[in-house]
Each structure stands twice: as C-alpha cells, then as structure tokens.
Specification:
Layout: E1 5-10, H1 13-21, E2 30-33, E3 45-48, H2 50-53, H3 63-75, E4 82-84, H4 88-105, E5 108-113, E6 116-120, H5 127-145, E7 149-154, H6 157-164, E8 172-174, H7 180-184, H8 197-205, H9 211-214, H10 219-236, E9 253-264, H11 267-287, E10 293-302, E11 307-318, H12 321-336, E12 347-357
Parallel strand pairs: 2-4, 7-8
Antiparallel strand pairs: 1-6, 1-7, 2-3, 5-6, 9-12, 10-11, 10-12
Helix pairs in contact: 4-5, 11-12
The structure holds thymidine-5'-triphosphate and magnesium ion.
Domain UmuC: 5-196
Site (Substrate discrimination): 14
GO molecular function, one term: damaged DNA binding
C-alpha cells in the first residue's frame, strides 16, 4: 500500500473570512492588517485577497505601501483597497472549525499553522481513493464554512505541501509517487522548503536556479558546497521525505507586537504598551489551552530599525500574568537607559513573545 499524504492550506485565509462575513467586501480588493491611517500607518499587511495581490500587496507588505498601491489603483480607475483590522479570535475559531471538518475524514491530522494541516490518508489504499476522500473534505469546508482550501496530495509531506501551493486558490493537485521527481525537476529551487531568498541568491550565483540544475551535483559536491543542509536537499530534490505526520501540533510560541504611531522613549508609554502586549499574549496562551510558559522575550526595534530581542527562561513554569509582566518589565528597562540604548534612540516597535508553553 503506497504512503499517501494530503496537505491543505486555506486560500487568503483572514481575508476570505472577512469577505464571507461582510458581503459588501466581495469582489473588491481587501487587505487585513494594521490601520493604514491614510498612508501614515506603520504596521504591516497580515494578508491580502487575490484582487489586492494583483496590486502587488502581500503578507508583510508595509501597510503604508499597500495604501500607496491602492491610491495608484484608484487613479488608474480601478477599485481602491478596503482595509480591515485583524480579528484573531474570529480567525482562530474558524481555524478550529476547519480542522474539525478535516479530522472527521482523516485519522491522523497534523495542524501546521492556523490555516494548514497535513493528513496521512494512506488508509484509502490508492491515490484515486485518497483523492476522492480529500475532495469530500474540500467540499465540506466549502459547504459548512463557505471557504475554499487548496489541496495537495503526494507520497510524502514535502510533495503534498508543494502540490497544495501549485494551483492556488481553490486548487486540487495530485502527484503520485511515480510522478514526484519529475514534478519537482522544473520548479525553482525556492519551491524546496528551507531554501529561502538568501540561499536562492547564493545558488543563482553558481548558476543554479531550478531543482533539476541542483540535481546535477553529486552527494560529495552537495556536501562540500553546502554542508549538512546540502545533504538534506539532496534527498528533498529527489522527492524523498520520510518525516511522519504527527498528530500533536502545538504553537511553539505566541507573540504580539505593536508599531507605535510615533517613535518614543517615553517610559510611561512604553511600560504601559508592554503590559498590554504581555496581557494579550498571556490571554491567548490560556485561550489556546495552555496554563504556563517558561520563556518570555521582548523585541525592541529602534527608530533606525535596529532590532534586538532579549529573553528570560524561568527555572519553573510561570502560571500568572503578573509574573510575566514583571519579567517583561525587567527585560525592557535596560532599553530605556544607556545599558541597552547607549545612543538613547527612540523606540519604533515593541514585541512580546512567550515560549516553552506548558
Ligand atoms: P498563508 O496561508 O501564508 O496565507 P493566506 O492563507 O492568506 O493566503 P494563501 O492563499 O496564499 O494561502 O497564511 C495564513 C494566514 O496567516 C493569513 O491569512 C494571515 C496570516 N499571516 C500573517 O498574519 N502574516 C504573514 O506574514 C503570513 C504569511 C500569514
Ligand atoms: Mg493560506
């Protein structure tokens, strides 16, 4: 019996939920993210629907840039972007509902982020039978949640994940074990998880752009040029991946951050914002079913965009919000004076993260 893995990923997830819930948004470019504040907003885009992506707006685009692209579209006579703020609680609820639908049909499901999961559907016995099963999941998500997912089916997690991204939105892509290597060969090396923009540039400098070009290197060459990573890629670019689908996904960390309307070194403002971020993160920790964490961290971005993270790990798990808040404050204080801020720079952004969740 072949190993058969499915990966699904919701399309433009936060934006699709907002379009679903507000009919007036439908058919228009939509961005979910920070407040654009007439172009002066300082946060980023969480996600853009496909109409807004056509304007060049994507996840992590500065919200001010998104605003500018929207204004340019307006001047061209195209519809401007509608901007909506993030409602994490709502998206987490929809995520749970979607995962529950998939779980009805898939015995072992590994949630990989808020809007994607892997499932082991080998039990279906064949790629045809697995495809039928997965089409029924996709149809159930559409009828029960009125949202589309893109689905990829492959002989392992690697191929399933790449396949699900192949024909977004509303995609359905099946790659059998026999097809897997040929499926990967013509793709950009960027398709391989773990190869990001920096590695892509490094490879391009060696005239390697496609998976099939990287395949020309022998194991010894891969090892000599790229070390341990090279050995991992050697298997991946040949469509080999035996990582298991693991049921128990847990968020590794929970974080929140805020970009201020104005850079500041006002300790009262900073301490207050830090407390709010800390409370927000702790509330989400509880909401997601945890009751303690062991590591807390803060991120400080200065006016010149230098970004520093400082973390503290407790010997024992911490269960109460006030203790988290006290520790965050201890981490922040050196940034308010010369210890961590010798040039007395103003602060642009504060972030709070909790890790080692229990
Ligand atoms: P993705 O699945 O990466 O993106 P998406 O679902 O919006 O669009 P696609 O159709 O390409 O899958 O991420 C899921 C959600 O996670 C996304 O809707 C918003 C959130 N997110 C952020 O908040 N910031 C980010 O940088 C990214 C990548 C996602
Ligand atoms: Mg998605």
């Amino acid at each position: 019996m072949p190993r058969i893995i499915v990966h699904f990923d919701m399309d433009a997830f936060y934006a699709a939920i907002e379009e679903r819930d507000t009919p007036a948004f439908r058919g228009l470019p939509l961005v979910v993210g920070a407040d654009p504040a007439q172009g002066r907003g300082r946060g980023v885009v969480s996600t853009a629907n496909y109409k807004a992506r056509a304007y060049g707006i994507h996840s992590a685009t500065p919200i001010s840039t998104a605003w500018r692209f929207s204004e340019e579209a307006r001047r061209r006579g195209q519809p401007p972007v509608t901007f909506v703020s993030v409602d994490m609680r709502k998206y987490a609820g929809v995520s749970s509902a979607v995962m529950a639908i998939a779980r009805r049909a898939v015995p072992v499901l590994e949630q990989a982020s808020i809007d994607e999961a892997y499932g082991d559907v080998s039990g279906a016995g064949s790629f045809e039978a697995a495809s039928e099963l997965c089409r029924s999941i996709k149809a159930a998500i559409l009828s029960e949640e009125r949202l589309t997912a893109s689905v990829g089916i492959g002989p392992n997690k690697l191929i399933a994940k790449i396949a699900s991204g192949m024909h977004k939105p509303d995609g359905f892509t099946v790659v059998t074990e026999a097809e897997a290597e040929a499926f990967l060969a013509p793709l950009s090396v960027r398709a391989i998880p773990g190869i990001g923009p920096k590695t892509e540039a490094l490879l391009a400098a060696q005239h390697i752009r496609l998976v099939e070009e990287l395949k020309q290197l022998s194991p010894a060459e891969m090892d000599a040029r790229f070390g341990k990573r090279g050995r991992e890629w050697y298997a991946k670019i040949r469509a080999q991946d035996d990582s298991p689908v693991e049921e128990h996904w847990e968020p590794k960390s929970i974080s929140e951050q805020e970009t201020f309307d104005e850079d500041t070194l006002d300790s009262q403002i900073l301490v207050e914002r830090l407390s709010q971020l800390g409370d927000g993160v702790f509330a989400r920790l509880v909401e997601e079913g945890f009751d303690a964490c062991r590591t807390v961290a803060i991120t400080v971005r200065f006016a010149d965009f230098t970004t520093v993270t400082r973390a503290h790990t407790f010997p024992d798990p911490v269960r109460d919000g006030p203790a988290v808040r006290r520790e965050l404050l201890k981490l922040l204080l050196p940034f308010l004076d010369r210890r961590e801020n010798p040039r007395r720079q103003r602060i642009r952004l504060l972030g709070v993260r909790v890790e080692k969740l229990q």
